[in-house]
């Protein structure tokens, strides 16, 4: 089974990591094409640049047995005279849809219409996006060192007697209104304490962000709810500030089997004032492992794209 993932953005290189696992375990021969890749993010990619005039990409588009579209619809992929849209409409490939960003009302209606018309499965990495979407947390390779808490006893060797509050964004802080507000409040609270420092990383490579965040004591996230970055800091055992609606809180609780251990933004000043020097909490790590279990994606992949399956989109 040849799977081609077509992604507008591959946030954190999630599908690049997952495709490697799927190939290694013999689940499916997966390749990933990222259309709007920004090298400055440092996210790993499979195929983001074309150096052979598009021959490899055309071959992948024509020979794929299944398409998985991330924040894209078949009509959005106009390469090679719309071959993706034609093959999907003709039912010659299996098709599945994924939503990483919250869609507009118009896009949500179109996703629902296509899913209902063709029977395409829909998955969302954010809860409560479209009614037909199955909620699964983003794929994170939590078994790798960068996504694990620092080893016990090693923190004091990096910075003595200093507590670090970290905030990061892929672009400019001024473009992230929620996060900028949290940073302003954190800096005001830290100014009254001699041993608390607020560090802001703007547009820095992902590996560097993970490294610095792993050594911090509190992570600020301005996403609407728990996103990939929030899950990463929780997996590292770092205290995490994130704003959750009641519906999203319930969805994450059902997914992980326990309430998300995040700090509400209105408690920020109180948390900074009493921020412990020992930052790692095994309970946060356990919750992140349950919420973002890689097994969920592998199981869904086995169900959707069975090797040698003759199923096709309706």
How is the biggest beta sheet arranged?
Answer: 6 strands, parallel
Total number of helical segments?
11
Order of helices and strands: EHEHEHEHEEEHEHEHEHHHH
Give the CA-based shape.
Answer: elongated
The proportion of residues forming helix, as a percent range, comes to: 25-40%
Give the uncertain stretches in residue-range form. 308-314
Q: Rg to the nearest angstrom?
A: 21 Å
How far apart, in Å, are the first and last alpha carbons?
18 Å
Mean residue pLDDT: 89
Write structural notes for this entry.
- The strands form two sheets. A six-stranded parallel β-sheet has the order 2-1-3-4-5-6. A four-stranded parallel β-sheet has the order 8-7-9-10, sandwiched between helices.
- With 314 residues, it is α/β, with parallel strands linked by helices.
- The longest helix is centred in the middle third of the chain and has 14 residues, at 105-118.
- Helix content is 36%, strand content 17%.
- Strand 9, helix 7 (228-235) and strand 10 form a beta-alpha-beta unit.
């Amino acid at each position: 089974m040849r799977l081609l993932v077509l992604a507008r953005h591959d946030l954190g290189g999630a599908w690049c990591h997952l495709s490697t696992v799927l190939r290694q375990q013999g689940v499916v021969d997966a390749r990933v094409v990222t259309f709007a890749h920004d090298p400055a993010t440092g996210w790993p990619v499979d195929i983001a640049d074309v150096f052979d005039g598009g021959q490899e990409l055309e071959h992948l588009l024509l020979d794929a047995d299944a398409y998985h579209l991330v924040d894209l619809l078949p009509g959005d992929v106009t390469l090679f005279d719309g071959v993706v849209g034609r093959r999907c409409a003709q039912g010659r490939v299996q098709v599945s849809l994924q939503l990483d960003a919250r869609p507009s009302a118009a896009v949500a209606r179109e996703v629902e219409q296509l899913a209902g018309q063709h029977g395409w499965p829909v998955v969302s990495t954010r809860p409560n996006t479209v009614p037909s979407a199955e909620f699964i947390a983003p794929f994170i390779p939590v078994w790798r060192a960068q996504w694990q808490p620092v080893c016990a006893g090693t923190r004091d060797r990096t910075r003595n007697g200093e507590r670090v509050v970290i905030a990061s964004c892929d672009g400019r802080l001024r473009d992230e209104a929620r996060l900028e507000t949290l940073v302003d409040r954190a800096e005001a609270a830290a100014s009254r304490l001699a041993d608390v420092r607020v560090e802001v990383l703007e547009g820095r490579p992902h590996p560097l962000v993970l490294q610095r965040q792993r050594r911090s004591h509190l992570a600020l996230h301005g996403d609407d709810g728990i996103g990939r970055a929030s899950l990463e800091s929780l997996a590292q055992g770092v205290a995490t500030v994130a704003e959750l609606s009641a519906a999203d809180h319930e969805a994450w609780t059902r997914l992980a089997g326990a309430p998300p251990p995040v700090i509400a933004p209105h408690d920020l000043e109180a948390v900074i004032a009493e921020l412990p020097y020992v930052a790692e909490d095994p309970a946060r790590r356990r919750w992140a492992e349950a919420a973002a279990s890689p097994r969920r994606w592998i199981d869904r992949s086995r169900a959707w794209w069975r090797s040698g399956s003759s199923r096709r989109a309706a």
